[in-house]
């Protein structure tokens, strides 16, 4: 027997319509490519998103067709988020930091019909346009006076495109499972694979962000999105902010420490979201200039995701910024949010050290994400905070396959998705990633966590970056090798580093050797490429004890 | 083109499973009929809900069958919430305060298969059992030693029923639109009508409660549910609390001021939810005893719903309890939450008087509830805070018909549900109820709000309760008559009352006369019965000017 409730689909257009009636005057502040800071409201975004939807309709864009973007975080990108998905097409945000060949592959694989691009990427578009086979026109996200002087067939101007269009648009009532946006994962191997989000998954994920156990996002927040809108929908924040009326602060292309600090100060940012690297630059800026962020800013919480938050980073935010770190974890395949490290009442009186121990964990699952750890045979492991195993997830905002079925089936028989991570889960549900499955070091039948070792090593004042890989060992099967990049002007001997680690990790985890390098290899999105590192150290031999 | 996300239904069982992994140790404190305070965890609730599900399966309860309850707020009722809905049956919570004939009608109309009842209602069950045609057994919510001595066929004991059952149960993967629970509305006319909630509507509604723009419910809360679990699922709180890990405090049958105050103090309640009447009793207790709630309690916010929150009530909570009032509005047909009066950043520096003005409004719609006001012809009215009209709503947790189609179609052609309320909506989306459509007074072509007049009148120190109805008038069509109940030992002349109102409402709204009564007629759920009042004053004549 079915319930007798209204059959109203969960649609991205309904988020915008909600914003237009429940908090139309909440603001979006954007730093633009052109330079000046731009302020508008959700009412403005709504009006222009509807003009855009009319323009796309005039261009005969069909439901389900992909519309590409190469753009920074800014109000026009917001308009695309709502206008494109709202009218039934699929917003395909492309990471402009990828190699040109990857961008070409992605746009062709997705069969993008139109490509909206920021002026920063004019030269890139000029270079790639001839090879983007399906793109019917390229639209520069600017006004007529600033159109770039490039040779591109069917070059259009965004402001001209929407100018004169009606700001009335009847959003279609779509199937909530319809595709709304897509994002390619930049795996460390093979071609990027497309994840196709639905209206339903985006709405449920956004609700999760607005709950207190998520980011507790609310209309009281002024939220700085350092995480790019081309990266998993900026962790879903544009939708979530429109849902609850949070003020958005969009930094455009300027992501250096000084620019971010200034923006946080002038736009009274309460919540900021980004990857550790960005926050390291911000802290570096504060350090160098001798600033007092606890006084200058009204920063309340910082979401750190994309990679594990180093303990020193968390500590600096807690002590110098007077801001609480929300360690978060997810993947493109998960929309992306899986867990947030929110404290429980029992942690209320925790000391700083205890809080930092807790913050080192990736957190508890949001409602909507089921999580378990299993051994090599798939048997579920105990939630005791000690047993570590393959982390599997399940839920309505988790992918069930990649676009066009690339990579084949990605769920097991019971519908679980293997995250590729190795993790522990404790009795309170806090999950902690200990490694990537492919990076784990197997020593004497036990696992050594390369991530724990790396996090401990970067705590040393002379270490800029660290990586740990497993090196074959006759007796132990594998033993860890610590590879470090030393900060300019600093020094740290092998003995000193190992001594430093001795009090921080289990004795049998201590690396057998330390290698010094100028730089570590990264992907275009900043992920450490351990595969390249393993390749590089293929012939490395450890002294066999 | 559909998105490629997992097809995971939104089910009540998944809320429980989430609680069991994300916050198994969060507590539920219950005051029991038997007397003592009972403490357990979500892990305990989960274990026993699964035992119950096994017991229901053994009783051959089929998917969609209704299971009735006559119970207070307590842990066993929680177990029924999750066990019954989780295993696919429909939890039918019956209001024990209804007249026995209404309870009989409701149980028969719903075709309840089993009836779980609290010891308080043993005599009632004994009286009604022979007339409850579909009920196969009556289960007393107690243990063997406390079984009531009543003549009821197929009388079972709850603890015996679940004892020995396995605490493993594989929840069925239901259609998320399947019915999960039902509640009858006690309309002021005709037979009660059943509202049939679905798993989907319950989950979406709960997510709304957990968002910062809802109640901001979180694991940091200790939430006192004064609103009964037999009244629209206690405003959805049992699900929402399990979703986010909030501690629940369930007061059982003791709802007097002293009991509630004591519970708030000992259980460190941060959030309390109930109707104005209950809060008036609590404030009376504080007044009489000369207590200092700001010191004794850690109450942070109070949700007032079910009827408009009088200004004096809001003020007392703000000033004497140091608690923020969340004025909320909804209906059984809306699961029930429609709006919450949360402030916007612009209200941050508001004075107490300004805050009270804002708190008088019912608030902004949650994401998921669309709202508009229309005139008599159905044309949408302006959101200017002035125009008032019929309040229509739409959304995934709003009913599309009553059980068995009673009352016929309840949506208009575009799918809007008429709430029967008259309201204004302002530019920031704040809605304020000005009247019930059937209670509005039409004077000279304009509307006079009986609710505004009543709220103003109860502000007078001598007035215990007030009602305003329209009386036919030759010239003006209708004019307001103020009907008051005076507090024991107090006095207020007609002239004094009208003078008091003069500075508080528009001059042309001033009642033409004042009538004094001993008591006002109410429904079993405490709603003012204006129809009876109009009947009572049918022959009343105003002096015609």
From TrEMBL, chains A, B:
Residues 31-403 form the AMP-dependent synthetase/ligase domain. Transmembrane segments: none annotated. Gene3D superfamilies: 3.30.300.30, N-terminal domain of ligase-like. Keywords: Fatty acid metabolism, Ligase, Lipid metabolism. One of its GO terms (molecular function) is ligase activity. InterPro entries: AMP-bd_C, AMP-bd_C_sf, AMP-binding_CS, AMP-dep_synth/lig_dom, ANL_N_sf. GO terms for biological process: fatty acid metabolic process. Pfam families: AMP-binding, AMP-binding_C. The keyword Kinase does not apply. Residues 453-527 form the AMP-binding enzyme C-terminal domain. NCBIfam families: PRK06018.1, PRK06187.1, PRK07008.1. Belongs to the ATP-dependent AMP-binding enzyme family. This is Long-chain-fatty-acid--CoA ligase. It comes from Pseudomonas arsenicoxydans. The lineage of its organism: Bacteria, Pseudomonadati, Pseudomonadota, Gammaproteobacteria, Pseudomonadales.
């Amino acid at each position: 027997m079915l319930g007798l409730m209204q059959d109203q689909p969960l649609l991205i257009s309904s988020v915008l319509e909600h914003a237009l009636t429940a908090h139309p005057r909440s603001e979006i502040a954007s730093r633009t490519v052109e330079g000046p800071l731009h302020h508008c409201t959700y009412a403005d975004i709504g009006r222009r998103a509807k003009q855009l939807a009319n323009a796309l309709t005039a261009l005969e864009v069909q439901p389900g067709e992909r519309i590409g973007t190469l753009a920074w975080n800014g109000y026009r990108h917001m308009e695309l988020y709502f206008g494109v998905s709202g009218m039934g097409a699929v917003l395909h945000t492309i990471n402009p930091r990828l190699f040109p060949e990857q961008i070409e592959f992605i746009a062709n694989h997705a069969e993008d019909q139109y490509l909206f691009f920021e002026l920063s990427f004019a030269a890139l578009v000029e270079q790639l346009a001839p090879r983007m086979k399906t793109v019917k026109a390229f639209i520069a996200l600017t006004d007529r006076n600033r159109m770039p002087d490039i040779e591109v067939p069917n070059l259009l101007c965004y402001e001209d495109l929407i100018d004169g269009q009606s700001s009335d648009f009847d959003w279609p009532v779509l199937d909530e499972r319809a595709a709304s946006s897509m994002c390619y994962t930049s795996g460390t191997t093979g071609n990027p694979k497309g994840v196709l989000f639905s209206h339903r998954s985006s709405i449920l994920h956004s609700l999760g962000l607005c709950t207190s156990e998520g980011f507790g996002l609310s209309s009281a927040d002024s939220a700085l999105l350092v995480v790019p809108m081309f990266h998993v929908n900026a962790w879903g924040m544009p939708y979530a902010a429109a849902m609850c009326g949070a003020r958005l602060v969009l930094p455009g292309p300027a992501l250096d420490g000084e620019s971010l600090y200034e923006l946080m100060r002038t736009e009274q940012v309460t919540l900021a979201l980004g990857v550790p690297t960005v926050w390291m630059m911000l802290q570096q800026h504060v350090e160098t200039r001798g600033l007092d962020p606890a006084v200058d800013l009204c920063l309340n919480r910082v979401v750190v995701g994309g990679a594990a938050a180093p303990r020193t980073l968390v500590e600096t935010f807690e002590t110098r910024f007077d801001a609480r770190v929300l360690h978060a974890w997810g993947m493109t395949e998960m929309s992306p949010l899986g867990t947030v490290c929110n404290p429980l009442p029992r942690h209320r009186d925790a000391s700083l050290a205890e809080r930092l121990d807790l913050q080192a964990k990736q957190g508890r699952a949001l409602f909507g994400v089921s999580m378990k750890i299993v051994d090599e045979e798939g048997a579920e492991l105990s939630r005791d905070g000690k047993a570590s195993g393959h982390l599997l997830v399940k839920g309505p905002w988790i992918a069930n396959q990649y676009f066009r079925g690339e990579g084949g089936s990605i769920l097991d028989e019971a519908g679980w998705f293997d995250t590729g991570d190795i993790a522990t889960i404790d009795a309170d549900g806090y999950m902690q990633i200990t490694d990537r499955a492919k990076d784990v070091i197997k020593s004497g039948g036990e696992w050594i966590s390369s991530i724990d070792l790396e996090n401990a090593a970067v705590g040393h004042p002379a270490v800029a970056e660290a990586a740990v890989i497993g090196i074959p060992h006759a007796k132990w099967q594998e033993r860890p090798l610590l590879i470090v990049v030393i900060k300019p002007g600093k020094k740290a001997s092998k003995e000193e580093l190992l001594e430093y680690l001795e009090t921080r990790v289990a004795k049998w985890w201590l690396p057998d050797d330390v290698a010094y390098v100028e730089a570590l290899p990264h992907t275009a999105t900043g992920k450490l490429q351990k595969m390249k590192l393993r390749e590089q150290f293929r012939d490395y031999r450890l002294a066999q004890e």
